[in-house]
Structure formats: structure tokens, C-alpha cells
Specification:
heterodimer, A: 350 residues, 6 helices, globular, B: two-stranded antiparallel ribbon, 9% helix, disordered C terminus
Chain lengths: 350, 102
């Protein structure tokens, strides 16, 4: 049985990736063709010609105005996926229609619905408003991961690994040493994990971007909305500086770290990452630094998880993991994902 | 959610890693509280609602020492600190009676 939940919204791309040319990406095992129409909207449909399955993203297939022409036999489809022309005959078969996907552009992402289109409710798309807010400056990217998406969820739900895997970048001793609070909101479908370090070493990622030196307050508040969107609300402040009673927090630095965790297949994942900050908005040097640093950190995770995937794929059945306190949030996320995938909540995945 | 906030509505479950200890305190939406040695046990108990959930259960004092956990029955366990494997949940009763004193 698949571990990938269906009837869900997934991030397929950044809006900037899709222009008036053919673009393809495999999402949850489905090859999807995208392009941006002349009116500016993004289309999403199957990347397989209904005739002989030739990929419509593959040259010599081409986009002619707002129609895609199959490079094999010339079947031609409109932006809604309907076939408008076939070679050698005037009658277009009634069933000549590409599967189309509900698609929404939001917060710089292109979201696509995988599942029954009748159940696609755009109100269920989790938000990351910082990513295209003028009050934040954002750097972002996507790294291919040759590992199942659940391994990335495990990774991001337990940030104690920063201390060991990302030392010298974002990891300091306090991350692994500080207790967490985990909250599951079953009705909203969100797992929260909070780690508030009130006296911590400032890692280079933050010292060089904020200018803070010495010890700091570092708060990490995770908000994961399975299956796809993960947000880390990161607050960095001088020692003893707390938010105001009215909720204002003018003396702290805020970084919203956003991941979109999109299964490509059962054993590979699109690892979208973004870092939005509310300081040094116009400082290109800070943007370049954070982009390079975060990409390096993501690639450290990718290297580790790629290895882990190979280990899991080749091990004998029946391996039993050991979970400790740091895994409290990760276990909650696993259980929620299993429920979404229709697997119930196997005892070992609670 | 801020660490100090207490669940107040249905569907909200919270697990606090008690400061200065290796213990996890689970609070159910019904108000029941249970202290466990690890995450597998605390989720078993929370998801087992209402089995073993007694809203009058008293949470442990903040200075509960590492190595001892108060159970629902108020007894003090002495096997704390021993990591519990996920395999321990694989049995047929994995999600039932999780809050019972063992």
C-alpha cells in the first residue's frame, strides 16, 4: 500500500519555474505537464498523450500559443486538456482528453491537487504568506532527494539533528540539549513542536546575517501541516529580550523557514526550501549568504537521507526502531500521515 | 503554540518534556494528565482516550526527579530511564489500556 496520501494539495513548483513553455514534474508518481497560458494562469495536465503515451513535455512536442502539439503524431490539446485535433481525420474521439489537475498559485508556490478533483478545496491549502510578502525578503530553492518523503518529515520534525549534522551552520549544543513541547491539533491537522532556547550559542547562520554576537535567545516553533507544508518560525534575539505584551517583537529577528515536502515517487522527494526574513531586507549580501548556507544545510540532509533510504531499502524486514523524547513530534507526524494515507495508525507509527 | 498553554478543546493533545527530567507529560483534551518515560508510551495513552483518562489526575510537581514517574494511580515507578522500543507497541493491545499501571 502506498504511503503517499491522496486527495491532498502538494507543491509542484515555484511560480517562477513555470513560464510560457512546457514544464514537467512527477508528483506522487504522476507525470504532470505545466505551462503558463498567455493570460498568465498555470495549467496542469497529464504529460502523456492519450494516443501512444508520448510525453508531451518531450521535444519535438511543442507549445503553439495555448495548445500543446504531441511531437510523435500531432495530437493537439488545449489548456483545459481537451484534444482539439488529431492527424488525418476530422473527428476527434470523444475520450481524447488529458487528465487535468486542479492547480492554484499561492504564496509563490504552484499547488496541485493529487486525487479526486471533485474533492479539491482550495481553502485547505496551508499558507506561507511570508514568501511573497513585501515585509520579508526570501531566498529559496529545491533539491531532489532520493529518499521517501517520510524520512524528510522525520528529519524536520526533530531538529536536535542540527547539533550533529549541521554543526558550524545552524547547529549548536543547545538545540539537542533543550526539551521540546509537542502539540497535536487533530481538528486543524497540525503538529506543533516548540523548542525555546533562552541562552544559546549563536550559530554562524544567524550571527552573520543578524550581526548578533555572543549568547542569544533562540526559539524554534515548528508548525507542520501534513502532508506537504512545514514551517519553522525562528526567533532570534539578544539575551533577555522578550516579545512585547501586545505581541509586538521589534527587537528580535524573525526567520520563517518553509519546506514543501512533495513526494516524487514512493522513494524520491522534491525538497522545496525557503528562508524568509524580516531584517536586512535590501541587503543582497545577506540574501546570498542565507541562500548559500541554507542550501548547504539542505544538501547535508539530502546526503544523509539518501544514504538512509538505501539502508532501509536493502535491510531485512522487521527492523524495529527505537524512539526517545526527541521523537515526540516526529511520531505524531507519522501517525497523522498514516491516517491521511488510509493506513490507519499502525502501532509502531504512533 | 506556546509551550505553557494548556489544551482546552477537543482534538488538542500536548506533550511537555518536563524540565530537568527525562519524562514526558501528556495532557489530553479532556484534561487528564499522564507522565511517561517516552514518546511511544505517552502517545499510546493520549490516543487511548478515554481509557485510563481521569480528569482528576494530578500532574506531577515541577521538580519531579529524573528516574521516577507518577502514574495515574499515583504510584511511583522505578523503571524510568529505560528506553522503550517501538516494538513494544506492536502487540494486539498496543492502543488499549495504555494508561493502566503496569
Amino acid at each position: 500500500m502506498s504511503s503517499i496520501p491522496r486527495d491532498q494539495w502538494y507543491v509542484a513548483a515555484y511560480g517562477r519555474e513555470i513560464g510560457q513553455e512546457l514544464f514537467t514534474r512527477t508528483i506522487c508518481g504522476e507525470s504532470i505537464l505545466f505551462w503558463r497560458t498567455r493570460a498568465g494562469t498555470v495549467t496542469a495536465m497529464s504529460d502523456r498523450c492519450v494516443h501512444r503515451r508520448f510525453p508531451l513535455s518531450q521535444p519535438p512536442s511543442r507549445l503553439v500559443e495555448d495548445q500543446v502539439v504531441c511531437g510523435y503524431h500531432g495530437f493537439t490539446y488545449g489548456a483545459d486538456g481537451g484534444c482539439v485535433a488529431v492527424p488525418g481525420q476530422t473527428r476527434v474521439p470523444r475520450t481524447a482528453r488529458l487528465k487535468s489537475y486542479p492547480v492554484v498559485e499561492l504564496d509563490s508556490f504552484v499547488w496541485v491537487w493529487i486525487g479526486d478533483p471533485a474533492r479539491a478545496d482550495t481553502a485547505r491549502i496551508p499558507r506561507a504568506p511570508w514568501l511573497d510578502s513585501p515585509e520579508y525578503t526570501t531566498v529559496s530553492g529545491m533539491e531532489p532527494l532520493q529518499a521517501r518523503f517520510g524520512l524528510l518529515v522525520d528529519n524536520l520534525m526533530d531538529l536536535s539533528h542540527e547539533t550533529y549534522l549541521h554543526g558550524g551552520y545552524i547547529g549548536t549544543p543547545e538545540v539537542a540539549a533543550t526539551p521540546i513541547t509537542t502539540t497535536v491539533d487533530e481538528e486543524a491537522g497540525i503538529v506543533h513542536v516548540s523548542r525555546h532556547m533562552d541562552d544559546a550559542e549563536c550559530p554562524p547562520f544567524y550571527s552573520k546575517s543578524t550581526g548578533l554576537t555572543g549568547r542569544i535567545m533562540r526559539w524554534q516553533d515548528i508548525e507542520y501541516t501534513p502532508p506537504c507544508l512545514y514551517k519553522l518560525h525562528s526567533r532570534i534575539a539578544p539575551l533577555g529580550v522578550l516579545p512585547d505584551a501586545d505581541g509586538g517583537d521589534p527587537d528580535a529577528f524573525h526567520v520563517e523557514v518553509v519546506y514543501a515536502i512533495t513526494p516524487e515517487t514512493e522513494h524520491s522527494t522534491h525538497d522545496f526550501w525557503a528562508v524568509a526574513r524580516d531584517f536586512a531586507l535590501d541587503d543582497q549580501g545577506v540574501s546570498d549568504f542565507l541562500a548559500e548556507q541554507n542550501r548547504t544545510v539542505v544538501l547535508q540532509d539530502v546526503a544523509a537521507l539518501d544514504v538512509l533510504e538505501r539502508v532501509i531499502a536493502t535491510e531485512p524486514a522487521g527492523y524495529q526502531e527505537l524512539s526517545i523524547n526527541i521523537d515526540t513530534g516526529g511520531l505524531a507526524a507519522r501517525r497523522m500521515l498514516a491516517g491521511l494515507a488510509g493506513q490507519g495508525a499502525p502501532a509502531r507509527q504512533v | 503554540m506556546e509551550p505553557g498553554r494548556v489544551p482546552t478543546r477537543r482534538g488538542l493533545l500536548r506533550v511537555v518534556w518536563l524540565p530537568g527530567s527525562d519524562l514526558l507529560q501528556g495532557t489530553c483534551h479532556c484534561g487528564a494528565v499522564h507522565v511517561a518515560d517516552g514518546p511511544v508510551e505517552v502517545w499510546e495513552w493520549l490516543l487511548g482516550h478515554p481509557t485510563g483518562h481521569n480528569a482528576s489526575t494530578n500532574p506531577p510537581p515541577p521538580d519531579t526527579p529524573t528516574g521516577a514517574a507518577r502514574t495515574d494511580a499515583g504510584t511511583v515507578r522505578t523503571d524510568a530511564g529505560a528506553a522503550r522500543t517501538d516494538a513494544g507497541m506492536a502487540g494486539p493491545d498496543a492502543l488499549s489500556g495504555a494508561g493502566a499501571v503496569r
